[in-house]
Amino acid sequence: MEQRPLDWDRLRVFQAVAETGSISAAATQLGVSPAKVSRDVEELEYSLGQKLFSRSTRGMDLTPIGGAVLKSAQSMADSARAIATYVKDAADAGLPRKVSIATHDGIATYWLARHLPAFHLANPGIEIILKVVQETPSVAGGDADISIQYEAPTSPNVFSKQLGWIHYILYAAPAYLDSHGVPETMFDLGKHRFLLYSGYNKQKELWEPKTPAWVEVIGHAVQSNSGAVILETCASGGGIALLPTYVSEFEQRLQPLTHIRPLAAIRFWLTYTEQVRNSPLYEPIIAWLRECFDSASHPCFRETYVPPTPLEAGV
Questions:
Q1: CA distance 305 to 315
Q2: Assigned CATH for 165-265
Q3: What distance lies between CA 266 and its chain's CA centroid?
Q4: Is 69 helix (H, G, I), strand (E, B) or coil?
């Protein structure tokens, strides 16, 4: 069958049918009649010379060729959005711009927030919306423009780069250790007040072998889903906590128990869509985030554990 030139609007209609699973749902989404949607799909199939759907009582099921066409159509849609964003950014070059970043409690509160003033000195026209999330954010789903997350994304239209590693060790306030003694091993913590951040549930396969079971059975003096609660309780002498080693770069009130090896280490990724990747608006934000977690400047983010050096009071 002779192929005719593709109609981009019909590809958009095809994508809507493929993603919604039915003619009627696609028509509602696009604001047109079901008859027009059906006609556009048939014309697209005719122009390609291939069946893109198999019709059944369940709805519209993609054929193997239809699945391949959908991926291309989605990529084209992403490119179209990127072009629109680029043009809008160019038109709004002199106006304040907003960029949303989603990440987890500790990274947002104790790392990115401390680096934001320097970013705004260099980029005064960009407003950062920093979202703290409990679960892994989805940039493809619109949770944020950019995310820093503990799970590698699986969406084919999302770009990601591993930023580094976070190592978790035990910390306590010197006053607490003076009163209760220093544990020799992790198993001595049964004699101490242990503070647990309940958000530690990612990449358990990378933890030390006995750590997950040990965390489950040991008693907890305090348990919270807020890293700020755990850190402040620990710094106030409330017990011993498992905290990321980057804490030592800013927290003078805590003593790292470096004689006990790290109990866990997890990877984290910088994630964003192709639209963000192709827009000049986001270039300074991406560069800043990579600099924030640069392992040459901040050894705590290296894959190989680097024992932290406690900050001296007054430094």
A1: 24
A2: 3.40.190.10
A3: 13
A4: helix
